[in-house]
Write a structure and sequence with these properties.
The chain is of the alpha/beta class. It has helices at residues 13-20, 40-44, 61-70, 74-87, 92-108, 116-129, 146-163, 174-183, 222-237, 250-255, 305-313, 321-325, 342-353, and strands spanning 30-33, 53-57, 168-171, 192-196, 241-246, 263-271, 285-292, 294-295, 298-299, 332-334, 339-340. The chain has a domain at 329-375. It contains 13 helices and 11 strands. The strands form 2 sheets. A 9-stranded mixed beta sheet has the order 6-7-5-4-1-2-3-10-11. A two-stranded antiparallel ribbon has the order 8-9. A hairpin with a 4-residue loop joins strand 10 and strand 11.
């Protein structure tokens, strides 16, 4: 199944298929990608939002705008795409204009497009007509009429877009998503699968692959280390099944160890472009690995059972940052409901982790088109 747009590092194509084969044998009740990107593995997983509660989180405003619209109503979003393609020329000026309006909406909170579907459509077009989806450089199609080619691309993506209807969308820092999951009661983590596809550590990247993302995790790998520690803690105090992708990352190798209940699996070797060969003219190779806390038989257990049992018997404490400090630290956009403070975010994540989405998400804007979750995945 095709991704709905090109994304550097996206788990699409054959790599996504190889990773899908490494998913837990038991279908989870909840599937979460805190670093959502193009949702490549989610698309290739074979899961359906009708029977698995699928969550896509992405901090990048352009990527989030696409998923916010597509997951709510793919047909209306595609209609908006074709309307914009009919109105605007296939030029660098269109790229710059769409980028300007999307960044203005992010900075000022004002949508100068007609509605959220038009905003998502503009973002989707921007990711499609730029080189590697970088939202900056117009892609040079060989066809005489590139606009016809783009229309065909969107027609081919319609099936994938329809499959995404019902996926829940969040826009918040991925580490905070994981902290809310970790700090919730262990029983809420059952049958939950989390796929970690963070921007790869800078220490493990070739120089030519650095600074490729609009929202990168960090430049000195401090947050990668924080991420690995959070994953290790989650493995010890929740029942979540977790899989993380990376190159051969020394941080993961040190923290996500076999003794702590993790299995490292080599997925594949990839030969890259000859544009940057080594001194012998050889193609550079990148090896993909995963670290996971389960195998085909179920969740793995840390070898140091004494330490693990002590930590698991310690009662979990919920976050009280908002009430203790009297201020809101985090902002999050939930589907079409606007913004919420950290207390509302925690309630939202807890609802997700209960697995059924039966409680109605607290509306942040009274006049917003709130999702009625009392009847499963049906939207009103």
């Amino acid at each position: 199944m095709r991704a709905i747009f090109s994304h550097i590092g996206g788990k699409n194509g054959s790599l996504g298929a190889e990773l899908a084969a490494l998913l837990p044998s038991q279908k989870p009740e909840i599937y979460i990608e805190p670093f959502g990107g193009s949702f490549g593995l989610g698309i290739q997983s074979g899961y359906n939002p009708d029977d698995v509660n699928m969550v896509h989180n992405e901090l990048d405003n352009i990527t989030h705008a696409i998923f916010k619209a597509v997951t709510y109503d793919p047909e209306e979003t595609l209609d908006a795409v074709f309307t914009l393609l009919d109105k605007y020329e296939y030029t660098q000026e269109t790229v710059d204009y769409f980028r300007l309006l999307l960044d203005y909406e992010e900075a000022m909170g004002v949508n100068l497009f007609k509605n959220d579907f038009a905003l998502g459509a503009a973002a989707w077009i921007l990711k499609t007509i730029t080189f590697n989806g970088n939202c900056m450089d117009l892609k040079n199609f060989e066809e005489v009429d590139p606009k016809t080619r783009v229309i065909k691309i969107f027609e081919n993506r319609a099936e994938t877009a329809s499959m995404l209807k019902g996926v829940r969308t969040l826009k918040m820092d991925a580490l905070e998503v994981l902290k809310y999951v970790k700090d919730s009661n262990r029983k809420y983590g059952k049958e939950t699968f989390i796929y970690i596809d963070a921007p790869y550590s800078h220490s493990g990247k070739r120089k030519t692959k650095r600074n490729l993302y609009r929202v990168d995790i960090d430049k000195d790998d401090k947050k990668i280390e924080e991420l690995a520690k959070i994953l290790a803690e989650m493995n010890e105090c929740t029942d979540c099944k977790i899989m993380a992708s990376e190159y051969d990352n020394p941080i993961y190798n040190t923290i996500l160890t076999e003794e702590r209940g993790w299995e490292k699996v080599k997925v594949c070797d990839r030969y890259k472009s000859l544009s940057n060969p080594d001194s012998h003219g050889c193609k550079p190779m990148e090896t993909e690995y995963i670290w996971r806390n389960y195998n085909e038989y179920g969740k793995l257990s840390p070898h140091n059972l004494e330490t693990t049992n002590e930590r698991m018997e310690e009662p979990m404490k919920s976050k009280t940052v908002a009430s203790e400090k009297g201020r809101s630290k985090y902002k999050v956009e939930v589907s079409f409901l606007g913004t919420a403070d950290d207390q509302q975010v925690e309630e939202e994540i807890t609802t997700i982790l209960k697995g059924h989405f039966l409680a109605k998400i607290t509306s942040c804007i009274q006049e917003s088109t709130a999702l009625d979750l009392n009847s499963g995945n049906e939207k009103h």
